[in-house]
């Protein structure tokens, strides 16, 4: 979809169901239906919302976090799997693009994953946060450059980053250079305190200006009961409040609708994609305002793999023929170690 026309976007700020993680999926599907009923063509959910963000890891030392970490493993999302199927059906039923944050389980590791479903329910992008932040490094593995990709959807060209990935200017630039029109940003919310929300606003408004795109930002929410359940220490509970700033920002860096900083709700706004060209006419960071002969980005977009089969590598060069002794000929008949054979020939 080109930068023309109007797209209605929704940003969701709701609480997960920490006690009954399957209830979080129900909340997601209900929010998709509500956003669709309100005419939204794209809806963005908070960071790792399914089954829930690991808030425990921010206030618990690692030595005490084992049971909660294992419980997150138990309820994490397999891709593909039942959660993917349920969200795909919900997206297709409302003909809406869905950007969902999940804890993805891949065998023995968890990852902070962002999923983009197109309006027909197809999963068009699964990416993993490239560097978990601070306490998160005890919970998730690292992603790779394969996920730094903008995808074409029914709502336009959509890119996504999670939380402090927005503090990595090269990660942001990789999406800018792919001409994203709508940037989906996801933060956990209910974390760190009000300063987190203040910093978030600066970050997403700056990216909208620099990229010349719309930013749809979603943060999570924790109820008082959930905060008390995560930690009974009043001092630590301060770190589980504030930090909510669900917002929709234009390419001019302006809020399209007032942001949501407390409580649950869904922001809905119309995005005039024509504003993208108006912004880039003045300043296109990856076009007429770029100097690629001076400054450019190299992106390694190959998937990181722990194992590669030999068939994936080019064949090894064949050594030059060497004189073979009678013993070498005998070895050949019984399956010799070719490395030894080459050494023998070299020594002779």
UniProtKB/TrEMBL annotation:
PANTHER family per UniProt: CN HYDROLASE DOMAIN-CONTAINING PROTEIN, NITRILASE
Name of the protein: Nit6803 family nitriliase
SUPFAM superfamilies membership: Carbon-nitrogen hydrolase
Domain CN hydrolase: 7-273
Top-level lineage group: Bacteria
Family: Belongs to the carbon-nitrogen hydrolase superfamily. Nitrilase family.
GO molecular function: nitrilase activity
